């Protein structure tokens, strides 16, 4: 598959989303790191919202289909322009029933998981409500 | 085993100290020591991750956690046993791996040692035998790696033909 994508990393979690799903990024400076950071969400490696945003999640962007006014925070955001990616289906045994992950690509020698921003947000919000 | 009894080999695997089951030997392909699997987000508790094997990535799972006889694994995986399976007769052979604490052991099994499959293994087992007093279910490898084990628990060919 060829197109424009964004790789978002949060610790060991690496997601690849269509570029049109990801809003403009902005950096959180030191002044906001210690704040409660209302309006900012950070995901764990298991794609569940964390109670507090870790210091290293300093790149924030809105996600299409996510809650209004919420920016999601990442360690790394990389835009992949006009890139050719080979998608591999995730083995069934590794798919959670409600998981938004069904396939992955190889990026820098490691898997990065394909999804849409709406599905990632839906999963994260459901996980937060269920916890 | 009496000389007139028909026997078959089974690969016994033990995990977590007291979890024991068996696999058809022709489905067991390779042992990987200290496997390093890439974690998969939003995966079920029995999923350990994607294991790189022979130029591709396969599922590495915890069979004991899958059937609920043990909780999610918290310690590092000592061995991964790579398995072959077929989801349907004539379908391509696929591969997956299970986590183990000990190396498998090969034993001979005969009909006289058959016993009931323990309830927790019924969705995965094709039969069961007693080994040193322990009921040891023989696992259908395809059911281990199927997303919908209820749908795959009906009798059908699920293990690849023995290799020559």
Briefly say what this structure is:
By secondary structure, chain A is mainly beta.
Q: Would you mind describing this structure in some detail?
A:
The complex is a heterodimer of chains A (131) and B (164). Chain A has 131 residues and is mainly beta. In chain A, strands 7-1-2-10-9-8 form a six-stranded mixed sheet, with no helix packed on it. In chain A, a hairpin with an 8-residue loop joins strand 5 and strand 6. The mean pLDDT of chain A is 90. Chain B has 164 residues and is mainly beta. Chain B is globular. Chain B has two helices and eleven strands. A six-stranded mixed sheet of chain B has the order 3-7-8-6-5-4. In chain B, strand 4 and strand 5 form a beta hairpin. The chains are: A mainly beta (131), B mainly beta (164). Chains A and B meet through strand 10 of A and strand 5 and strand 6 of B.
- What level of helicity do the residues of chain A show? 10-25%
**Total DSSP E strands of chain A:** 10
- Alpha-carbon distance between the two ends of chain A: 36 Å
Count of β-strands of chain B? 11
Instruction: Give the overall pLDDT of chain B as a whole number.
Output: 85
Main sheet characteristics of chain B: 6 strands, mixed
Gyration radius of chain A, to the nearest Å? 14 Å
Reading side by side through the largest sheet of chain B, how are the strands ordered?
3-7-8-6-5-4
Low-confidence stretches of chain A: none
Oligomer: heterodimer
Q: H/E series of chain A, N to C?
A: EEEHEEEEEEEH
Overall outline of chain B: globular
The interface involving the most residues is between: A-B, 24 and 20 residues
Strand fraction of chain B:
35-45%
Rg calculated over all Cα atoms of chain B: 15 Å
